[in-house]
Amino acid sequence: MKLKKIIFIAPGLPVGGAEKFLVSLSNSLLNQTSRQIIVSLSDNNPLEKEFDPSIDIVKLPRQSKWSLKPLIELRKCLKKEKPDIIFCLNFFSYIFVRIARLGIASKEKVFISYHSTIHLNRKEHFLHKIFFATLNKNFRILTVSENQARYTSTAYNVPDYYFKTILNGVDTGYWKLPASDMEYAHIRKQMDIPAASKVIILTAGFRAEKNHIGAINALSILHNDFNEKAYLLFVGDGHLSKEIREHAKVSPVAEYVKFAGLQKDVRPYYWSADLFTLCSTSVETFSIAALEAMSCGLPAVLTEIGGASEMIEEGKNGFLCQPTDKDIAEKWHKALITPFSKSDIHKHIEKYFSLEKMISAYKEVLGTDTLNK
C-alpha cells in the first residue's frame, strides 16, 4: 500500500499540551508515512527539536495574525507537495489552510485537531463561530474529549458527523513511578521545601486561563481554613510570569509559593510532589500534563472543564472542583488527606490513556493502520 504524505500545520511550536501531542503523533507515524512536513506559522518553535530529524520543519512566521506572505508560501507548499493528508492543529491553522487552498483542485483529506473547549473571551467565541460556519463535509474535526465534542456541537451548532473523539494518551514507560527517594530529596532541597511538607504542583504555561493567581489565592485559603501548610510549586513560564510572581510576593503565603521555571524533564518535580493540580477557568480540554503527572503516581485535582471528568475517578485518582478559590482549596485538602495508591493511579493511566492506544486510534482515522495488517 502507498505510504501517506502528511503536512501538519500548527500556529507555532511552543511548549504546550497540543504541541507536545503533535510531536508524539508525528514521531509515531514515521513508518506509516512517505514524507512528513511540519509547517509552523510562527517563529516561536522551541519544540521543533523534539521531532525526528527525518521530518522537515517549515517556518512561515507571521508579522500579524493574517499576514499575506505565509499564506502565499503555504499555498506554494501545498501545490508542490500534493499531500494525501493535511492535519491542522486547531482552527486557526485550518483557516490558513482553507484560504491557501482556494482555487486549488485537490483531493487530500483535511483533519482539524481541536484542543479547546470554552473559549477565553467573546472575541474568540465569535471567531470560532465563523470558523465552524466555513466547514464542509470533506473536513473532519478530531476532538480529544467527549465532553468537548458535545459542548462544541451545541455551542456552535455543528452536526455530530463532523466529530471523531480520540482521547489523549501519554508514554507510560517514560512517565513512570519514582524508582527511589533520590529525586524527591534533590528537588525539595533545590526548591527550599522541607522534606516533611506537602507539595502541590501546577505545570502549565503562564497564561490567563491557567489561573495561577487563583491557585495562589486557594493556597492562602488552604493555610487559613484547613491549617494545611502546603507548598505550591509552579513549573513553566509565559507572558504573565511577572504579574504572577508579583502577586505571589504580596500574598500572605509568599514563602510557600515556589517557581521552578521551564524544565526539560518534569518527572523529578512530579516525583517530589504530593498532588498535581490545574485551576483553569477556560480552554482546558484533556490535559496531557495531568495524564503525565498521574502516570508518575500523583493524584490530581482538576477544575471541571473539558474532559477532566473523563480522566478523573473521584476518590481513586483525584477530585474535580469548580474554578473558584474556595472550592479549589477544599478539594486540595480532601486530596491531601486521602490515602491514594500511586501504583493504582499509574495503572489507571496505563489502561485507559496510553500513548499506544491513542496512536492506534489516529492511525485508523488517518488511514495508515492497514500498513501493519
Commentary on this structure:
39% of the residues lie in helices and 17% in strands. The chain contains 14 helices and 13 strands. The strands form 2 sheets. A 7-stranded parallel sheet has the order 3-2-1-4-5-6-7, with helices on both faces. The chain has a 6-stranded parallel sheet with strand order 10-9-8-11-12-13, sandwiched between helices. It has helices at 17-28, 68-81, 90-100, 122-133, 146-156, 182-190, 212-226, 241-249, 267-271, 288-295, 308-311, 325-336, 342-352, 355-366; strands at 4-10, 33-40, 56-59, 85-89, 109-114, 139-143, 163-165, 199-203, 231-235, 257-261, 275-278, 300-303, 318-321. The chain is an alpha/beta fold. α2 (68-81) crosses α3 and α7 (212-226) crosses α12 (325-336). The chain folds into 2 domains: 4-169 and 354-372, 3-Layer(aba) Sandwich (Rossmann fold), CATH 3.40.50.2000; 182-352, Glycogen Phosphorylase B (Rossmann fold, 3-Layer(aba) Sandwich).
Fraction of residues in H or I helices: 25-40%
CATH class of the largest domain: Alpha Beta
Uncertain residue ranges: none
Q: Strands across the major sheet, in which order?
A: 3-2-1-4-5-6-7
Distance between the termini: 11 Å
What is the mean pLDDT? 92
| CATH architectural grouping of the largest domain | 3-Layer(aba) Sandwich
Which word captures the global form? globular
Beta percentage is 15-25%
SSE series: EHEEHEHEHEHEHEHEHEHEHEHEHHH
- Here the CATH topology of the largest domain equals Rossmann fold
Q: What does the radius of gyration come to?
A: 21 Å
Number of domains: 2
Largest sheet: 7 strands, parallel
**Secondary structural class:** alpha/beta
